[in-house]
Specification:
InterPro entries: ACT-like_dom_sf (IPR045865), ACT_dom (IPR002912), Asp/hSer_DH_NAD-bd (IPR005106), HDH (IPR016204), HDH_cat (IPR001342), NAD(P)-bd_dom_sf (IPR036291)
CATH topology of the largest domain: Dihydrodipicolinate Reductase, domain 2
CATH class of the largest domain: Alpha Beta
Family: Belongs to the homoserine dehydrogenase family.
Cofactor: a metal cation
Largest sheet: 11 strands, mixed
Number of domains: 3
Radius of gyration: 24 Å
Helix content: 25-40%
Strand content: 15-25%
Shape: elongated
CATH architecture of the largest domain: 2-Layer Sandwich
Enzyme class: oxidoreductase
Distance between the termini: 53 Å
Number of strands: 17
CATH superfamily of the largest domain: Dihydrodipicolinate Reductase, domain 2
Pathway: Amino-acid biosynthesis; L-threonine biosynthesis; L-threonine from L-aspartate: step 3/5; Amino-acid biosynthesis; L-methionine biosynthesis via de novo pathway; L-homoserine from L-aspartate: step 3/3
Length: 435
């Protein structure tokens, strides 16, 4: 087969970036695949707007099923997003025996089991490199390069918008709301950027990573997530005084019979490699039992990086089509989906160190009352910063704890927030230590 036909459903930012790479790097792609990859048809509801790339008008249609039912199209690329029409199109294409590529992280995270099983049953390839970390080839690394390893730990900056916001807050001391306004103006964030800043986007991506690592579709609903909207420049400054940076991290630990999985703002040592990943960049740090530590770094979103990931999947599938390979890799790169469920450790069982910031009245005995409640809940104080200056009329008291259990911490915070000497609710940030 000297020509492999592709149909693209959805011609927005990523769709146009995919088309641009396929047309601009045609010679490179042909030399590496050994066949021509041709976009036979593009489906989109808007076929009039200029996307910044030159496309022959007769390639467009408003009917996605014109592509799905075309026997000459080998690969369908779904780029419309969402959980309804996208799923319908993907499952229809799979049932028609077409290989499918998608960047739809929300769909795979929340309803992936049905799609993975359909692809496996129909003997087609499902490519989703672009669903996690844009142009960083992390899915391919887990399915191929790291596949012999038991991944013991992973930490990732998986959302460029929240990382951009935290970088500006750290470097310039700006408040959250000011940075968000700038991010929207610069095109780094939607307006409002809810799914980015509340942890949902990163949790979707974390769910997909867990699914590949374990071979079973993980439950998105079981992933704890917490956003960055309540962080202040003061918290970031205090973290710096303790020797830490604040990053929105997605964290996985393999505990043997279950998995620790969470997304939230995290303090990490300033000399940790992830502490210096700034602006809109993504990075994923892995520890494998044989390979040791690995870092993957790059642009996690955008027209060209995400388009690059889409085309890498197209090329991978095209090579297999050309070679006539019958035994195709299952979506999660395991021998099969058993139907069992992955056990995610309940968040209340988490054990780690914590940062607390209290806003207190400037009166004697406040620190001892706080320490008393912490001690009653088996929480040991490691360091304290007590500033004389007032912030909004209250004196800040900042603490780092030794390792404690989340359930004890939450119980203590409820008691602390009822104290008449505290003027606002306690701020909490979890800490990843050097171990």
């Amino acid at each position: 087969m000297s020509k492999i036909n592709v149909g693209i459903i959805g011609f927005g930012t990523v769709g146009s970036g995919t088309f641009e790479i396929l047309t601009k790097n045609t010679k490179i792609i042909r030399n590496r695949v050994g066949a021509d990859i041709v976009v036979k048809k593009i489906a989109d509801l808007d076929i009039e707007s200029d996307r910044g790339v030159k496309v022959e008008r007769d390639l467009f249609t408003t009917d996605a099923y014109e592509l799905i039912n075309d026997p000459e199209i080998d690969i369908i690329v779904e780029l419309i997003g969402g959980l309804t029409k996208a799923k319908e199109f993907i499952l229809s294409a799979i049932k028609n025996g077409k290989h499918v590529i998608t960047a739809n992280k929300a769909l795979l995270a929340e309803q992936g089991r049905e799609i993975y099983e359909a692809a496996e049953q129909c003997g087609v390839i499902l490519g989703f490199e672009a669903s996690v970390a844009g142009g960083i080839p992390i899915i391919n690394a887990l399915r191929h390069g790291l596949s012999a390893n038991n991944i013991q730990k992973a930490m990732g900056i998986l959302n460029g918008t929240s990382n951009y916001i935290l970088t500006r807050m750290t470097q310039e001391g700006l408040p959250y709301n000011k940075v968000v306004q700038d991010a929207v103006k610069l095109g780094y964030a939607e307006d409002p950027p809810t799914l980015d800043v509340d942890g949902t986007d990163a949790a979707h991506k974390l769910t997909i990573l867990i699914s590949i690592m374990s071979g079973e579709p993980a439950s998105f609903a079981s992933i704890y997530k917490e956003g960055i909207t309540d962080l202040t420049p003061d918290d970031i400054l205090f973290a710096t005084e303790f020797g830490y940076r604040v990053k929105m991290l997605a964290i996985i630990r393999n505990l043997g019979n279950r998995i620790e999985a969470r997304v939230h703002p995290t303090m990490i040592p300033k000399d940790h490699i992830l502490a210096n990943v700034n602006e809109a960049y993504n990075a994923i740090y892995f520890e494998g039992d044989f390979v040791g530590p690995c870092l993957f770094y790059g642009l996690g979103a955008g027209r060209r990086p995400t388009g690059s990931a889409i085309v890498s999947d197209i090329m991978d599938i095209a090579r297999q089509i050309k070679l006539g390979i019958k035994g195709l890799m299952p979506p999660l790169a395991h021998a099969g989906i058993s139907g069992s469920r992955i056990e995610i450790m309940p968040m209340e069982k988490l054990t780690c160190a914590y940062y607390f910031r209290f806003s207190a009245l400037d009166s004697p005995g406040v620190l001892s009352r706080i320490a008393g409640i912490l001690g009653e809940n088996r929480i040991s104080i490691a360091s304290v910063i007590q500033k004389g200056r007032k912030i909004n009329g209250s004196v800040p008291i900042v603490m780092l704890t030794h390792k404690a259990q989340e359930s004890d911490v939450q119980k203590a915070i409820r008691q602390l927030n009822d104290l008449d000497v505290l003027t606002s609710n306690t701020v909490l940030i979890r800490v990843e230590d050097r171990q």
